[in-house]
Amino acid sequence: METQIKQGFFAERAALNMTDYLVFDYLFETVDDPEAAAAHLCQEQSTAQWKRVGVDEDLREQFGAKVIDLRVEGTAERASYPLPGAEDSPVSRCRVKIAHPHGNFGPKLPNMMTAALGEGAFYSPGIATIKLMDIEFPDDYLHTFEGPKFGVQGFRDLLAVYDRPLFFGVVKPNIGLAPDDFAALAYEAYLGGLDIAKDDEMQLDTPWSPTPERAAKTGQARAEAERITGEKKLYLANITDEVDRLLELHDVAVDNGAGAVMINALTTGLSAIRMLRRRNRVPLVSHFDFIAPFTHISYFGVHSALVTKLQRLVGFDVIIFPGFGSRMKTPDDEVIASVTACLEPWGNIKPALPVPAGSQWAGSTGELYRRLGTVDFGIVPGRAVFEHPLGPRGGAASLRQGWEAVVAGQSLEAYAENHEALRAALASR
Amino acid sequence: METQIKQGFFAERAALNMTDYLVFDYLFETVDDPEAAAAHLCQEQSTAQWKRVGVDEDLREQFGAKVIDLRVEGTAERASYPLPGAEDSPVSRCRVKIAHPHGNFGPKLPNMMTAALGEGAFYSPGIATIKLMDIEFPDDYLHTFEGPKFGVQGFRDLLAVYDRPLFFGVVKPNIGLAPDDFAALAYEAYLGGLDIAKDDEMQLDTPWSPTPERAAKTGQARAEAERITGEKKLYLANITDEVDRLLELHDVAVDNGAGAVMINALTTGLSAIRMLRRRNRVPLVSHFDFIAPFTHISYFGVHSALVTKLQRLVGFDVIIFPGFGSRMKTPDDEVIASVTACLEPWGNIKPALPVPAGSQWAGSTGELYRRLGTVDFGIVPGRAVFEHPLGPRGGAASLRQGWEAVVAGQSLEAYAENHEALRAALASR
Predict the structure, then answer these.
(1) Which residues, including other chains, have CB under 8 Å from residue A68's CB and lie 6 or more apart?
(2) pTM (2 d.p.)
(3) Residue A110 to chain B, least CA–CA distance (Å)
(4) What pLDDT digit, counting tens, does each position of A381-423 carry?
(5) Architecture of A2-142 per CATH?
(6) Interface confidence: ipTM more than 0.90
(7) Under CATH, which number does the domain B151-427 receive?
(8) Domain residue spans of chain A
(9) Are B241 and A113 a contacting pair at CB < 8 A?
(10) Residues 6+ positions from B393 with CB-CB distance below 8 Å
(11) Residues of A in contact with B109 (CB under 8 A)
(12) What are B218-238's pLDDT values in tens digits?
């Protein structure tokens, strides 16, 4: 039986025309023979039954997924998460690369997810735990996706800022403010030096803050702040809603004054973003709600950096994701991998601006700059701006001063001696 | 600090107008004081910063989520899954009910998911593991959702079958068959007694099997089989694709001969189904691809029965989900909970037909009937029909004979003595 299942589901990479394949890269733990488990994984995710009864045919060659690399990385007395019925069985820990013919589903994200993350992958016999770590895409397949319309460069062009990280600020209180109050807070923060005032991920089109009115008032505040500061500014409106309202809300927000739109894309589904991407007039920004349930467990689900990669693929210009620090409960190497997934050269797909988020303040920009070695990122504090002791203007100023300290080669403390907003930020920590 | 965080985020259920609240029911493990952790969970998922600097206001009363029930169910030396930085800290295992004012997001699924499963819920301080177990919906809120258009009764009406479980069959081989071959297999299975021939979840609109042609050929096979057998039949087309093609594919499939359509709804997003539900002319059937990554871990993510409930809420008439048996790696009580989520009375929302799936055959119907105590369910074998030694006609006949044995009060073995298809099914196991 094991020999039988292995037939037809193994190949050498060099023997395949890799233009025709995506490569699904999985980590898995199995109670079975690793080769048999890997073959099952291919069979279940592609040609589960590969011939008709009584017909001499074999659909595996064209349609079968194939193991092109399998490494047993170790063994353990039991799985990280038990396989029902085999709780105390020893397991092999494996890493496998599976070449899956993309002709099986075409350039369609839900169907690709069905193959990579569906019944076949997660209910394959003998496999206790499994995590999809990455997907390799051939250039021809990438060309069927639009990717970011603006990218890092286009987003920077809107702000005419090229030499430093970008300062997003989440207007707070995040729920319950009328548009006038919301715009007044954004205005103060713009004057203090904020680049982008944004809606919280919980802010949406509501009776107490209709999107057209919020966008109009905040757009006016933005224009006035631009006139005073001589700097370009953006208002980022969260248009997350049922998918059949996304296009309408994009238009409403933009026509009224939003310079970019945000979508909590894992709650709408990434396919809805492709729909929006065919029509968007301003940059698309993603927020990561609902990412944790399927990325947070180290040996199960999907790697968070792959989710970042897919968000870039469908067209996000800016990607907000869980960043460094204990608050976000995300290993440092995953954060770095997501930054890489945003910025690395990738066929025809433009780079997206990475925004590693979570409990940020004036000191975060320097920390991130030192860790990432680039200015191509954003920070997205909320309370550090809007709960700053000097108010949002002081809060935003503290962000700019935190970066000025980096440029001046000074410690935050030294630079704060002559900069009140930064001093107050330091004192309130 | 702990006293401060607790203020404003606790309430008695009786003191709230519960018509205005959804109740989010979480399991969590915390290294902190349980009350402080629960209050943080409320704060983070609603009014994170609940006043402006220098303004005398408190947005918590109207907009704050509130703990209405908190039970510490036990303690453990460490979390089931570690909290970074507190790997060896003891935890309290808690169950909490949080009343969240639905006015914060309205009857919008992505925004409700943002509140219940977003940054606030999964990155709340001190909480190591968390799982959303259920959501209670007040009737007024339910009324803003359509639910199933047909429901169990409407689906049965299409088949004119009321007194037994329904027999779905996944046409196999699942990938690579031309429409003529596909329809020929479905035809054989219809003649053997299958009610619904369906596309595999990997079957879609492809160059080798365009949906219009597959639907047309299979629709003709269905009509011919109806004429011969005198029974009503359905062809169930998988229309999973990018969300902006769903309406078009629904129309194309139905106009050409499909009597129901399937969507791998967790890969398109549930909000896309609401869009389709405003237009569907035939029953909507869901398949569970991508459910495992966020429901499979017992102390993290989302309970699978809640996902079933949400699928009923958005309008699925038939819900296919991981069923009993080791193959599907799902605890029995979760399967039962999903069946209940489909069938229990629920305000204005019609029941959906539960289809617990996985490695089913002629014996599955009786097993399920005994466990569920109802005939309102479907089974959905693939290979048991299409790899049956006598071919699809025999495979489908074996399903019907398996149920006839139940009705006759005989064992499968006894009934098989005079029924060849069932005998062959038993022999091939």
Answers:
(1) A11, A12, A13, A16, A23, A97, A98, A99
(2) 0.97
(3) 5
(4) 999 999 999 999 999 999 999 999 999 999 999 999 999 999 9
(5) 2-Layer Sandwich (3.30)
(6) yes
(7) 3.20.20.110
(8) 2-142, 151-427
(9) no
(10) B188, B189, B191, B192
(11) 242, 267
(12) 999 999 999 999 999 999 999
